[in-house]
Amino acid sequence: MNDPSACIDSLARICERFRLRNLQPQLLACTEMLRDSGVVDVAVLGQFKAGKSSFLNSLIGDDVLPVNVLPATAVITRIGCGGRERAIVHFLSGEAEEVPMGELGDYVTEQRNPNNTKRVASVEVELTSLAPFQGIRFVDTPGLGSIFAHNTRASMDWLPKVGAALVAIGMNQPLSEQDLLLLREAFKYSPEAVILLTKADLVSQRERDTIIEFTQWQLAQHTARQIPVFPFSTRPGYECLKNDVRDYLLRQVAARHEELFSKIVGHKVSALIAECRAYLFLAQTAAASAEKSRSDLRDAIGREREGVASLKEELRILTQDLKTRVRTASAERFHAHHCELTNRLRVSLWKEMGAWTGNLTKRTQAFQEWVATALEGDLGRTVGTTFP
């Protein structure tokens, strides 16, 4: 990869254009790593109380990081080499403040900064004693899986920035499903990982060898990688274990930090490209599916319109047929009763006419009254009989 910066800029434009918000943490991690000019972050990851802070204090040779019987670390803490010893607190507001080393616990521990009420983003610690580790920076992360869910979230949110991963696992609880999940997640952002089996003093030498062999076998089964495994203990008498880890970090990480930096940047950018491609493929598939759905809907609407037009024509024909039938039936019923009604009225008229006296006007009035009465009575009886 000739120019990672240009590649990241192109990916940023693609993510902005297609609104791939989920890739922003990885983009930011790549940008920050390039800005750090070759410094490799060696993150100590793991479940709570796995001994991460104790390991770093032992490696540094001083109790810089707070350690407690309860879950202690609550804020991401970076420890690297500096011209003088100092601690800089970076707040979520964007402000930064240098604080005395002795007050570090006021900002990074759950007990003295519960739920991160002080709104700390991260803490930078610089130590002159880390001069042999030039080019790398250790990162103490909050433990995973404790009752403090925000600690787990802080570590997982920071994970895209990992350079190399030291996954701390207690020797008494080797390689749980959660540890494997964490390791797989770390490999998404870095090609470099080491397993640190802490609390090695809790088991015998024979048990330790068995656990190491079992852990290596499990790692090969689940990750298909050869991952270095180091036992470790902070107890007196186990200095040889600490020296093994220290020598590995000096030879394989610090001495090769420039080579590792390029390798890690390439890994991060490649992973980002792969995820970007996957998102775009999903978007393309969804768009094609949506277009097919719209096409199917248009076809269905067209068929429905044709069906409605056909139904209208059928209703028109049916209505016309009903009109014809009603007209015919009405005419038949009318003619069936016409002659009978006419004869009956004629007979009634002859009977009534004999009683009419007076001039033409009176007889006409009498006729009109008879007609109204006769028609009302006869027609009413006829209708009532014919149409019950």
* Named CATH architecture of the domain at 36-255: 3-Layer(aba) Sandwich
Share in helix? 55-70%
Give the topology string: H per helix, E per strand.
Answer: HHEHEEEHEEHEHEHEHHH
Give the strand order, joined by hyphens, for the main sheet: 4-3-5-2-6-1-7-8-9
Fill in the CATH topology of the domain at 36-255. Answer: Rossmann fold
CATH homologous superfamily of the domain at 36-255?
P-loop containing nucleotide triphosphate hydrolases
Q: DSSP strand (E) fraction?
A: 5-15%
| Span between termini | 97 Å
Overall SS class: alpha/beta
The backbone outline, from C-alpha atoms, is: rod-shaped
Number of helices: 10
Low-pLDDT windows of residues: none
Kindly report the average pLDDT value. 85
Radius of gyration: 47 Å
CATH class of the domain at 36-255: Alpha Beta
Number of strands: 9
In short:
By secondary structure, the chain is α/β, with parallel strands linked by helices. The chain has ten helices and nine strands. Strands 4-3-5-2-6-1-7-8-9 form a nine-stranded mixed sheet, with helices on both faces.
Blueprint of the fold:
Elements: H1 4-17, H2 24-35, E1 40-46, H3 52-60, E2 77-81, E3 86-91, E4 96-99, H4 105-108, E5 120-127, E6 136-140, H5 149-158, E7 164-170, H6 177-189, E8 192-198, H7 205-223, E9 229-231, H8 239-254, H9 257-353, H10 360-386
Parallel strand pairs: 1-6, 1-7, 2-5, 7-8, 8-9
Antiparallel strand pairs: 2-6, 3-4, 3-5
